[in-house]
Design brief:
Length: 389
C-alpha cells in the first residue's frame, strides 16, 4: 500500500472540507471532501518519479487586434482519449500512475501542461517570477510589432468525481455543491496570485467540443490579462449604464425566453443568442465572482444548475456537447459592474447536426443564428420540466 499521510483540513461552507497537498513534481493538489464523505483524513503520497515541469509558455501579441496568444507547445503531449484503466484523472492504482494519488470526492490540481504558468509576475510561494519587465493592464494594452510576454498565471483541473465517465450534470446535488464550494475557494486563491487579472471556471463537455478525456471534469484558467470577451463587455457597460446586468435580468425575466427562476438565480435563452443552444444564468443580486456568493446562493445553485444541464441532455437521445463558461469580473477592474454569470453554449442544432463556425462567424465575427431564441427556449423549458434530481 502507498505511504499515507494526514492532511491539514479546513472546513468551508456547507460542511465541505478542504485538504491541500503536493504532487511529486511540486504541483498543488487539493482534495475537497463532500459533507457526507466516506473518506478518512489520510491520503496517499504521490510517489511517482516525474519529469520537471515544462517552462512557462510565451505570449505573442497580435498587433491587428491587440490580443495576446499563448504559445504552449507542451500541450501537444497531453493525454488523448485514454482507456478507462489509464485514465489520468482517476485515483492511482498499481497499474495506473494517474495524477491523483488517493480516492477522492472532488480534486483540484495544477495542470501538467498549462497554457499559463507556473511562473507568476512576482515570486510567490514556490512559483518563480517570470522576469518580464514591469507589467500591468496599460503595458499589455500597448500595441507593437513583435511584442512578447511570459504566459504567467495558473491552469487547474477540477475533477468532479473519481468515476471514469460523466459530466457535471451526472453528479448528485451534494457533489454539485462541493464543486461550487471548490470554485469559490479557488477563485479567491487564484485572484490573489501576482499578475493574475481574471479567473475563469469552465467545463468542456463532449468530443464535438474537442474534449480529450471523458472523465467528468472542468478547468479553471487564471489569465495574466483581461480576456477579449470581457474587454468588450466593459466597453458595453461604459457605453450604456453601470447597472447593465440588472437591466438585462429585468428585461429577460419579462420575456418568453425564461427557462426557470428561483429565489436567487434565473436561467434564460438570451435575446440575441448566437448558438442553436445558448443559456445564460444570472444571480439576482450583484456578485462579481463565486467568492462573493452567499451560502444560500450556492445552496440553490447546485440543484438549479443540475436541472439545467440535465434538461439540455434531455433534448435528444444522446448527451449534448457544450461549453459551460462561468464569466467572472476581472480581479481589479469592473468589480462593481461585471456580474458573475453562466453562458452555456452548444453547437448542436438538431439530433444529428452541428453548427460549424465557417466564413462569416470564424473569419469576420458576424454571427447568423440558426434557431430563433424563443423557439429554443420553449424546447428547453419542456425538456427541463421532465427532469428529476
Amino acid at each position: 500500500m502507498p505511504e499515507q499521510h494526514d492532511l491539514d483540513a479546513v472546513t468551508l461552507g456547507a460542511g465541505v472540507v478542504k485538504r491541500p497537498t503536493r504532487l511529486a513534481d511540486g504541483r498543488e493538489l487539493i482534495y475537497f471532501d463532500d459533507p457526507d464523505t466516506t473518506l478518512g483524513p489520510e491520503r496517499a503520497i504521490d510517489a511517482r518519479t516525474l519529469d520537471p515541469r515544462p517552462a512557462t509558455a510565451t505570449m505573442r501579441q497580435d498587433i491587428l487586434t491587440g490580443d495576446w496568444i499563448s504559445v504552449a507547445a507542451s500541450r501537444q503531449n497531453r493525454a488523448f482519449l485514454p482507456p478507462a484503466e489509464l485514465d489520468p484523472l482517476s485515483p492511482q492504482t498499481p497499474t495506473n500512475p494517474s495524477e491523483i494519488p488517493s480516492r477522492y470526492d472532488v480534486a483540484v490540481f495544477e495542470n501538467k501542461s498549462p497554457s499559463f504558468g507556473p511562473a507568476l509576475a512576482e515570486a510567490h510561494g514556490d512559483a518563480p517570477a517570470a522576469g518580464d519587465p514591469p507589467r500591468g493592464i496599460d503595458d499589455l494594452e500597448h500595441l507593437g510589432l513583435g511584442r512578447t510576454r511570459s504566459s504567467v498565471g495558473r491552469c487547474e483541473v477540477v475533477c468532479f468525481s473519481p468515476e471514469h465517465s460523466g459530466s457535471f450534470g451526472t453528479q448528485s446535488v451534494t457533489r454539485a455543491r462541493t464543486v461550487i464550494e471548490a470554485w469559490a475557494d479557488r477563485t479567491a486563491a487564484l485572484s490573489a496570485l501576482p499578475g493574475v487579472e481574471q479567473v475563469f471556471p469552465f467545463e468542456n463537455r463532449g468530443e464535438a467540443i474537442g474534449v480529450t478525456l471523458p472523465h467528468p471534469h472542468g478547468q479553471i484558467y487564471a489569465y495574466p490579462y483581461i480576456t477579449p470577451r470581457t474587454t468588450r463587455l466593459l466597453d458595453s457597460i461604459d457605453r450604456t449604464a453601470p447597472d447593465l446586468f440588472q437591466r438585462i435580468l429585468d428585461f429577460e425575466r419579462g420575456s418568453e425566453r425564461v427557462l426557470f427562476s428561483g429565489e436567487h438565480w434565473t436561467a434564460f435563452v438570451p435575446f440575441a443568442a448566437r448558438w442553436p443552444l445558448e443559456v445564460h444564468l444570472l444571480p439576482h443580486r450583484h456578485v462579481a465572482d463565486f467568492s462573493e456568493t452567499s451560502d444560500a446562493e450556492r445552496d440553490e445553485l447546485a440543484p438549479l444548475y443540475l436541472r439545467l444541464l440535465r434538461g439540455v441532455d434531455a433534448l435528444y437521445d444522446s448527451p449534448t456537447p457544450y461549453i459551460a463558461a462561468w464569466h467572472q469580473a476581472p480581479v481589479r477592474h469592473g468589480r462593481d459592474t461585471v456580474r458573475l454569470n453562466l453562458q452555456l453554449t452548444s453547437p448542436r442544432r438538431a439530433a444529428d447536426k452541428l453548427k460549424f463556425l465557417a466564413g462569416s462567424e470564424a473569419a469576420m465575427g458576424a454571427w447568423i443564428g440558426d434557431v430563433p431564441p424563443e423557439v429554443a427556449a420553449d424546447r428547453l423549458r419542456t425538456a427541463i420540466e421532465g427532469v428529476s434530481l
